[in-house]
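User: Thanks for the earlier help. One more: Diacylglycerol kinase. Can you show the sequence and predicted structure together?

Assistant: Of course, both are below.
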Amino acid sequence: MVARFVRWLLCLVGLVIIGFATFYVVTAPSPLPASHWANLGDPDIKNGEQVFWAGGCTSCHAAPGAQGDAKLVLSGGLALNSPFGTFHVPNISPDENAGLGSWTLADFGNAMKRGVGKKGEHLYPAFPYGSYTRMSDKDINDLWGFLKTLPKSSNVAPPHELPFPFDIRLALGGWKFLYFNDQPRVVIANADDKIKRGQYLVEGPGHCGECHTPRDGLGGFLRDQWLAGAPNPEGKGSIPDITPGSKKMGNWSAGDIANYLETGFTPEYDSAGGSMAEVQKNIARLPASDREAIAAYLKAVPAR
């Protein structure tokens, strides 16, 4: 009887070890090799600046309340409240100690496209790499080149404040297994080049779905509710539906949307408010053709 119990216990332990090892292998960080980033050439700084504004980097990474040129000092420090705890946005200035000054293009590219940090650790998806993974290598190279031209800051953001079990980074591999991929969020039949460009901007650097799409209990997007509106991640109110089925925007033309993104004024002469006001100011810096492409995509997505 004792021998049988011991064999049973050893089998159970073995299964647990095998299960844990399988989980780790399947969900381990998987950065792209350095060779992937080796031959992209010199960055196009002008394009990198456009990618910077498309991505709204300053809205999160500048010091809270920064204005004017201070918005280009990416010192971090903004606190992002969530159901999983409080995330503190890091310094991504070129400072060698507090920021990304010691990083390489490969380090930066793997953070953007694989959600993997410089030390090989999983990054939390509060940093929207789930959207950035759709960006082109060229745009990431150009953005990296532009970031290195910005002022340095020695500010060190505090660590995230996350309760157990959300403070266990290993579990992020399971989250990635369930939700992380680089496939289009929606498939639009017969999309022309303008719609394709808008899809790239909205689903990639613009990461619009991060606020405008509802999530399940683990923080993954509800795939059949893309851009259909969601609770405000900052805790108050809601983020609107921006599909053609929206009660507010459903009657807007593509021209109305493009004008709103440029000026901040709706067809009813209301103005952008809350966090969208900052988003609109960033998008206003893009070429008119990009705002028109975003509008064309938003008119082409499925109504919810």
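User: Great, one quick takeaway?

Assistant: The two ends are 62 Å apart (CA to CA).
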